[in-house]
């Protein structure tokens, strides 16, 4: 599918979709969940907040505008609960989870059950998009010729698989194997992407911390020690790549798809895993059929730029060198040099010039500012300063490019 460099989108200055919610929106959502205000009172508050954040992004000079994920509780939204064959459950035993999956481990270590647990209970079928109305409202806020630039973020297709132990992700009398289960997941995404495309969407970003877990030695050791696993971690990673690629079957040529890998971004700027991209780089960059990789690169836990030598010349990488977790500002010149250093490695890997390699590159914060609606340990002004810094870095390296 992906053989030609697809750009505009992505853009030189990007952000990862989720933005801090204004306090009025948070208060109204909580009141609505408690039954203190009707749902009809929540929608206008969401609309106003989205209108304002769209205007903020426009003023900052961003083209791939999102709605801040303001209608969502968590970054992955409601794709899986919206499918026939999936149900959100509140009464479950914790032994259904892989305790070594980094986010699961964090919950269990704190004495909490993992939240928003959704299980396959029957045959999976797409029965209506829970994303498309979010996109349509966002599209109504910009001129028609800018709709193609808008970004909507999607849940990773493996999201409700990796977290569960072997045999716990779906009933064995419903699906006989992972391959059969993944086949219906892929079909559901094919339908979702067509619905979004028909609504004018041309820019989607999958958010997938799970893929980065395969960089974590702690996770890999736990996976190897789990006697219930029927595959190696490498085999599972390969199956996830195939799941993605099958999800893209029939994708129109003018629809841009990217995937964001990070190591967790929970309440209070919590991360869950560590480890560089080295271990997964070849398969990730050369076998996964996406146009763009949005990669976390703000701290040493993400490793160095060396894996980028495996990035093919027809794919983009957006370097998340600016942290979204804390307000402390990076040095602009130092970040520019880091981007140049990354381009040098891409150039070496493909035997091209640094200038040509830079054409494959953009810059962003390393993750969203509010993957969970409560947000990171950064205030509104801190977020704006970070977004402005990203835009300034891009302006200096790629003058007059969006």
TrEMBL record:
GO MF terms, alphabetically ordered: 5-methyltetrahydropteroyltriglutamate-homocysteine S-methyltransferase activity; zinc ion binding
SUPFAM superfamilies with a match to the protein in the record: UROD/MetE-like
Pfam families for this protein: Meth_synt_2
Chain ranges of the Cobalamin-independent methionine synthase MetE C-terminal/archaeal domain: 179-378
Alphabetical list of InterPro entries matching this protein: Met_Synth_C/arc, UROD/MetE-like_sf
Biological processes, Gene Ontology terms: methionine biosynthetic process
PANTHER family: METHIONINE SYNTHASE, SYNTHASE, VITAMIN-B12 INDEPENDENT, PUTATIVE (AFU_ORTHOLOGUE AFUA_3G12060)-RELATED
Name of the protein in its database record: Cobalamin-independent methionine synthase MetE C-terminal/archaeal domain-containing protein
Originating species: Penicillium argentinense
